[in-house]
Amino acid sequence: MYEGAVQDLIDELGRLPGVGPKSAQRIAFHLLAAESADVTRLVAALTRVQQEVRFCVTCYNVAEAEQCRICRDPRRVDDVLCVVEEPKDVVAIERTREFRGRYHVLGGAISPLEGIGPDQLRIRELMGRLADGTVTEVILATDPNIEGDATAAYLSRFLKDMHLRVTRLASGLPVGGDLEYADEVTLGRAFAGRRNAGE
Ligand SMILES: [Zn+2]
How far is the CA of 144 from the centre of ligand 1 (A)? Predict the structure, then answer.
């Protein structure tokens, strides 16, 4: 439709989640008209992410060192572990300021439709972290949708005999969406009002 470089840019943008062909075209033409310095900053940010960002060896959050900022923070408590699907959920929960423990990022949720089973998630790594008995409560903070609920149900069965308190966020989160769509107050309230899983 367009010549070489412009069409390549539209194609690449169109591959991004949530960007349809029309948005891809709009973003591409926005970039074509933008100040050169703005585009250079965007390119630099992409390059830095590619070169410098990796996953924390402990919790699998995004990190710029071997461990992420939260795992390195000595002021966080070690006995409560919050299990989430993606790094963006860590950000959403951190914004509520309700949680002072550590995280474990599963890397997704159980979804038979997308061919994602428990083996594709970092559940074995979670078990490894629970093995020494330091953690006494696991909070299952998966998304309030079918996949998130299935994942939490699986994990609560899996963790049942481990002498742990296993909790889930209180209801009241927007059903069917992602954790990140909940506003801070609602998510904070769901966190504070968490209940034992299976109740
Ligand atoms: Zn970490």
Answer: 23
